[in-house]
Amino acid sequence: MRNPIHDILFEPVQLGPVTAPNRFYQVPHCTGMGYRYPRSEAAHRGVKAAGGWGVVSTQETEIHPTSDLSSSNEARLWDDRDIPALRLMTEAVHEHGSLAAIQLAHNGLHSANRYSRRIPLAPSAVVVDSNDPVNARAMDKADIKAFRGWHVDAARRAKTAGFDIVYVYAGHDMTLLQHFLLHRHNHRTDEYGGSLQNRVRLFREVIADTRDAVGDTCAIAVRFAVEELLGPEGIRHDVEAREVIEALAEEPDLWDVNLSDWSNDSQTSRFAKEAYQEPYTEFVKSVTTKPVVGVGRHTSPDTMVRLIRQGKLDMIGAARPSIADPYLPRKIDEGRLEEIRECIGCNICVSGDNTCVPFRCTQNPTAAEEWRRGWHPEIITRPKQTEPYLIIGGGPAGLEAARVLVKADNDVTIAEASDHWGGRVTAESQLPGLAEWARVRDWRMWQLQQVQNAELYLSSPLSAADVLEYGIANVAIATGSYWRRDGMGRAHRQPLGFLQKGNVLTPDDVMQGGLERDAASGPIIIFDDDRFYLGSVLAEVAVATGRAVVFVTPTSMVAPWSDFTLEQHRIQKRLIDLGVEIVANSKLADMDSASLTLECVYAGKLRQIDCATLVLVTARLPNDQLWDDLNARQDDWQDAGLRKVTRIGDCYAPGLIAAAVYGGYKYARTAMDGGDAVLREDMNVNV
Ligand code: ADP
Ligand code: SF4
Fold first, then answer.
1. Which of 163, 388, 516, 565 has the fewest CB atoms below 10 angstroms from its CB?
2. Where are the beta strands (DSSP E) in 171-309?
3. Residue 30, Cα to own-chain centre: how many angstroms?
4. Of the bound ligands, which one is closest to the alpha carbon of residue 267?
5. Residue range(s) of every CATH 3.50.50.60 domain in the chain
6. May I ask the CATH architecture of the domain 486-621?
């Protein structure tokens, strides 16, 4: 039963000629599936519609070969042959009574056109914004006319494909229309350059063109970045953005407003909390009578209601919350709030698009597997015959496996060695900025605590003898991993013997209070060869001790992989702001009790620095002793009643938390399906 407080979220909203059935709006977001995996894309969007999102949007959709984002997999509408792929999506969305929206995009100086080999287009002659050695050409009047024509053609094709809402997109510092708006990209002296009135001209023209072309049946949405956090260098919400919206206030049927660039729009929970865009977007409704949608990692129904009631938004926009829980609206509708699987704000989903593959989600292992494997975020079919399972280890992998098996009516015993659940997410969520990661544990524990068929045991470190004594037929070992103490990683492929001479801690030591207990008083050196988030988070812990902190890495920047989660810039800035000295391009050459010798990874030059404590963040090893011990006793399995023993998660191979959750889900599904999980190919299909 829905709580009446939430009724307002289920009111229909008129958007020009169409009506959204409620206020839940899945704004355009990338999936890494795009034009190359159209059935996967359609199935993913269809599940969102089934879950109650009143509007479901595509990702950005290239309208022409001069906007070729290859090697990324965005959506594509270059010509009529692209219509059938997108029609798959509109059909999947309409099946559940939702509206389908398409974000038409020309990417201007943001697309190097690697595949199409066309010369990029921009307001002025400038170099493209990627590292490609490519320059964009200044558009002349004929180019502007041609671009307007391409946009109209794409809008018509979108209508033919069945879309209800067609976007005109000026955001993320990625689109031609925004490039015209920004004085740092637009140096023209004609009527499309100079004053803001001139720079907004093309935006206005394209909105009008799109309305003329498809506005009879489609709503015209505008996506506009109201703040770039660049000061006078960019668009400021209280200056230029207000002027633009005042100038165009009633022209679209919907304003979709957000921060730019993407790293500002999709901030991680380490750097921003829910509704972080509110201060920048709340003014928009005072300038237009048209509906306004905005984002900000909204997962709390109360926040959503407040934003509507306070007149800050008309529709609750979401990308990541809709990925983590495609059924979020339905759960609110049915009063099942505890079942909402809240996004943790880790941006692993974003990394999928940035590495040009179908994305994955830490919280929702079924994301992007709806077509390929036939997985559904909510539905888990009961097997013909249920079976008992023993899960050893209560981290993300073990908890997810147990949750899925229990939901399918199997009896599950789960034993955890320590006195708390959650494994690495419990440890890491206590580190600076990572508190929301505990949601991975909390959501699963809540599910397991509701049912009769899960037996949960803490403080139960199981040995091989214990497992044989239990005699449960199916055993999953989810015992996790531990950080290496020998320096091995990417830069060092052999153990470093000299580490014995100094004071060395691993991340596991630090997470168990190792730095607080450390008797040394000189500099703490973080050696980060892991290259993602943890080294920098531990540097923050080290700074809190009051000792000098030096961050040493073999790479040329701090945490390079975090570029894929849009965090690299913020992480490096944070360390600089905290006074951490950063030493790049360096690996370890020697150590004694007071110093560390570093070696330049390019030239081999040596340099000595003071070091009282070295924290090694290099690589992890599986905690698979139990697996080895059980295998050594295989002859006893049959008598004990064991049939199948499987390693899952980090115990199989240490990786992302997302991979451990996925491993837990896959284990459970495969065990119940008898290993016959669907695996459909979806590449380059002629749909
Ligand atoms: P994953 O990410 O694969 O779930 P984690 O390291 O987060 O791995 O969690 C593994 C969990 O397994 C930890 O909570 C750890 O205490 C527990 N564990 C390790 N060995 C045993 C064991 N022999 N018996 C029960 N639990 C164990
Ligand atoms: Fe949220 Fe992380 Fe899932 Fe993305 S991957 S939707 S940020 S939980």
1. 516
2. 219-227, 254-259, 292-294
3. 10
4. 2
5. 486-621
6. 3-Layer(bba) Sandwich (3.50)
Distance from C-alpha of 37 to C-alpha of 139, rounded to nearest angstrom = 33
pLDDT one-digit tens code per residue, 364-419: 999 999 999 999 999 998 999 999 999 999 999 999 999 999 999 999 999 999 99
568 lines ligand 2 (CB under 6 A): no
pLDDT in tens, 228-243: 999 999 999 999 999 9
Tell which residue, 226, 111, 231, 99, has the closest CA to residue 166: 99
Distance from Cα 481 to the centre of ligand 1, integer Å: 8
Point out the residues that are catalytic: 30, 169, 172, 265
Q: How far is the CA of 654 from the centre of ligand 2 (A)?
A: 19
pLDDT tens by residue, 490-528: 999 999 999 999 999 999 999 999 999 999 999 999 999
Task: Please tell me if the CB atom of residue 664 comes closer than 6 angstroms to any atom of ligand 1.
Answer: no
Which H or E run contains 87? helix 83-94
Q: Tell me, what's the pLDDT at 678?
A: 67
Q: What is the CATH number of domain 388-480+623-673?
A: 3.40.50.720
> pLDDT over 70 for what percent of the chain?
99
Ligand 1 within 6 A of CB of 642: no
Give the number of other CB atoms < 10 A from CB of residue 643.
Answer: 11
Tell me the average pLDDT across 442-462. Answer: 98
**Which sign, positive or negative, has the C-alpha torsion 669, 670, 672, 676?**
positive
Ligand 2 atom showing the smallest separation from residue 323 Cα? 6
Any atom of ligand 1 within 6 Å of the Cβ of 396 = yes
Say yes or no: CB of residue 441 within 6 Å of ligand 1. Answer: no
User: What proportion of the chain, given as a percentage, has pLDDT over 90?
Assistant: 98
Q: Answer whether CATH 3.40.50.300 is correct for domain 4-350.
A: no
Residue of 265, 349, 662 with the most ligand 2 atoms within 8 Å of its CB, for mutation: 349
Which residue has the CA at smallest separation from atom 6 of ligand 1? 480
Residue 608 near residue 586 (C-beta atoms within 8 A): no
